[in-house]
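Hi support team,

I submitted a single chain yesterday and got back a structure, but I'm not sure I'm reading the token output correctly. Could someone confirm the output below corresponds to the sequence I sent? I've pasted both exactly as they appear in my results page.

Thanks,
R.
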Amino acid sequence: METFFLFLLVGLLAQAVDGALGMAYGVISSSVLMAFGVPPAVASASVHGAEVFTTAASAGSHVWHKNVDWQLFVPLAIAGVIGGVAGAYLLSGITGSVIKPFVVAYLALMGVYILFRAVRGVKPKAIRPAWILAPLGLVGGFFDAIGGGGWGPTVSSTMVGAGEEPRKVIGTVNTAEFFLTVAISATFVWALVTGHWREAEGLQDHLTAVAGLIVGGLMAAPFAGLITKRVPHRVLTYAVGVLLLILALFQGLQLAKVI
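Hi R., thanks for writing in. Yes, this is the structure output for that exact sequence:
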């Protein structure tokens, strides 16, 4: 029972940040699971299983509050699903530590750049044509599957850095994430059934933690759209930049085995 309430708190805090800023649920949740000794592949599958529920609630909130740019949503979601399925299938043969240093460096650079834009007060501009986001969705979906979290930090940071309005970025990326998460979770199930995934036998040992992540996430997700809608553009930009630097620092310390 202690495990359930611990991960309920983790899920609540992670989803509150993710829903409002478009990133961090997967990174925070998978990091905590791996800190408890859960293998990376199992942690990723567990987090995506929980996200099927939390992203549905978060997406519904953003749609309700009109935070979604549907022109950007379509190419982003389709490419994200393709990248996510590929990443989930290949996860057992990829060492996340190989690409993680590059991801950490990218997050840090984007964090600094976004803060620079916030300080300068640069006005947002729409990303067009929308199809230009397809490669970004492909990479973001792939990173998300192999790392248990990476869709938001990769995609949201790039879109905000490109000048898109943070509110639309957060709403669009969160809504597209639901479809990505369903696809990744389905791929994990398929890999489990076909025997492609060799580490799955330990998954049932972490169901209590997953349940906690789901319940905690569902408690916070409905408020995502309202928070994003009400917070001023410049404040959101600052918040995204600071969060990216925090995530980069946290993952950098993990790589250095300091934490």
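A quick pointer for reading it: The first helix runs from residue 2 to 21. Let us know if anything else looks off.

Best,
Support desk
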